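Tutorial handout. Part one gives the primary structure; part two gives the three-dimensional structure as tokens.
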Amino acid sequence: MKKKLLATFMTFAMTASLLAGCGGGGSVSTDTSSDTAAEETATDDAAAEETTDDAAAEETADAAADATAASGDLADKKVGVCIYQFADNFMTLFRTELENYLVAQGFSADNISIVDGANDQATQTNQIQNFITDGVDVLIVNPVNSSSAASITDMVVDAGIPLVYINREPDADEEARWEENGWNVTYVGCDARQSGTYQGEIVADLGLDTVDLNGNGKIDYIMIEGDPENVDAQYRTEYSVKALEDAGLEVNELDDQVGNWDQATAQQLVSNALSENGNDIEVVFCNNDAMALGALQAIQAANRTVGKDIFLLGVDALTEALEDIIDGTMTGTVFNDHFAQSHSAADAAINFVNGESNDYYIGCDYQKVTANNAQEILDLVK
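Part two.
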């Protein structure tokens, strides 16, 4: 529309210019009546042209105003962000990058509110209700419990506010509801099955001869899970072991405990497991790097050596974990790309604010991290 109006305006301007040029370059008439008629015609044409130009300019201005309204002034838009727990190392990286990117895209820092759910769903639900009362233009939610997604969705959709879920994926039935109802709701994150698969493949790539330290022909492992209600924890637990089995390796689970993503909790759990199972533990799988760092403390306290008589895996690629991989005190991790995820979440929020739609699932890929590429990833995240 803008291009059409501009073309119309330019046509009128060119026509006026050509008319003026023809009048200036023609022969001079000595007929007074003809001159008078010509002057009257020129006056009428000029008046008509001015009226048309004014109308065209007004239409152009209106179209520009409509376009501005459609794209929105992001500086005036309010964003509410709910993080399940500020104490989570990975979510600290995520929320920091999210805020920086939102500001870089034009949002005012004063209009971006990020709150700590303190790992309590009741607290987070109250925070969401407060954001709704405040009239935010879009909500970005990292749910404390993925199982609460349906009630969160209903609450936010009923308020007419678009919703972007991050990091903790609602289940398939919940995501299907968004599409069935045409709601402005999406999920941004990586497929946790991939991260679990990569953990298992890192171990499988080492080979049975390397990992089977007790010589029983099996991979003897312990698993330290995150939140058992969290689909990421469920998939990482399941698919890390599945990857070993898919590689033709026999596995033996010695222990499976819930560490709730916490370093200190994981340290105690792994310490207990090492006391109970002695040197039979060959691999320690942790659903995230924070727990892997706790596991490393327990391993070192038990006078075990990663890479020599035990192997340790995490997920996230936290700076400290990457440094441990480079130093040889951690076997590997999986890069959970907080840059791509936070930027995609912000872009989805911007689309919603501007009246545009999003896919109901916006995914990204994890990346295996071993000693071969840990320095490269560390350079990226630092």
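Part three, for discussion. The two ends are 46 Å apart (CA to CA). Residues 193-335 form a domain with the Rossmann fold fold (CATH 3.40.50.2300).
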